[in-house]
Amino acid sequence: MKASSLERYDRQLRIPKLGVEGQLKLRKASVLVAGIGGLGCASSISLAAAGIGRLILVDKDVVEMSNLNRQILYRGEDLGKPKAEVAARLLKSFNPDVEVKGVFKEINRENVELFVRDVDIVVDGQDNYETRFLLNETCVKFRKPFIHAAIHGLEGRLLTVIPGKGPCLRCLIPNTPPLLRPVPVLGSIAMVMGSMQAAEAIKIITGIGEVGVGKLLVVDLETLDLLSINVTRNPKCPVCGGLK
Question: Is 238 part of any domain?
């Protein structure tokens, strides 16, 4: 590793079981951040700061004024610009060690496999369950870890899916929830949950710590309560039930 990299990542290199070997694993890893809203902004900047080798940012939207309370990569001068492109430029400037690609597209059934199959991990930054379920299904097909998070008000939920080792998102939520727009959100909960998603990705890549497979973590900032709920895999799940 270059001397500049050793200095940049000095504090995390000191983490037991991470060190230079773990940092090199991060450098070789690729992560898809699917949606660069509140969750995706927080997770992607955390991943870039950690030195992930390659980040692919996909989002179909442009920056709006109402995004600025929680989507920390954007500024007033970015209004009307594609989120993925703005975020990619900022993250590349933030950490030149990281290869960042911004894709201004909607994730759909026609292109989802192109995005998922060539990365190591998928981070869920979506605001709708139709696309979340599509990503979950595709990650199961290609055996890619899928780190799901959702936020509402002051509450956040986190589930890490590793196909074949625990439940998938469909095991947890068999039926599509009704669409609520606009979703009430305190910016702080987006940053908390996005950072947790990044931490899960880093743990998977480096092999440190315990990944939250089979656990739904509920974070309530209103009461400062953390609740971990065991989630079992559904053997009849239409998405992952046939995996061995």
Answer: no
DSSP code at position 195: H
pLDDT exceeds cutoff 90 at 94: yes
pTM above 0.90, yes or no: yes
> What tens digit of pLDDT does each residue of 122-169 get?
999 999 999 999 999 999 999 999 999 999 999 999 999 999 999 999
Burial bucket for residue 235 (CB in 10 Å: 0-12, 13-18, 19+): exposed
Residue type for position 100: V
What's the rounded Cα separation, in Å, for the pair 123 and 136?
10
Nearest to 170 by CA among 190, 146, 153, 154: 146
Q: Is 239 inside a domain boundary? A: no
Q: How many separate domains does the chain show?
A: 1
d(CA 181, CA 129): 12
**Is residue 242 a part of any domain in this protein?**
no
Taking only the tens place, the pLDDT of each residue in 109-120 is 999 999 999 999
For 170-213, what is each residue's pLDDT tens digit?
Answer: 999 998 888 777 889 999 999 999 999 999 999 999 999 999 99
**Side chain identity at 142, as an amino acid letter?**
F
Give the separation between CA 207 and CA 117, rounded to whole angstroms: 21
Identify the domain containing residue 81 by its residue range: 3-230
Sign, CA dihedral 117-128-136-151, equals positive
Separation between Cα atoms, residue 211 and residue 161, nearest integer Å: 9
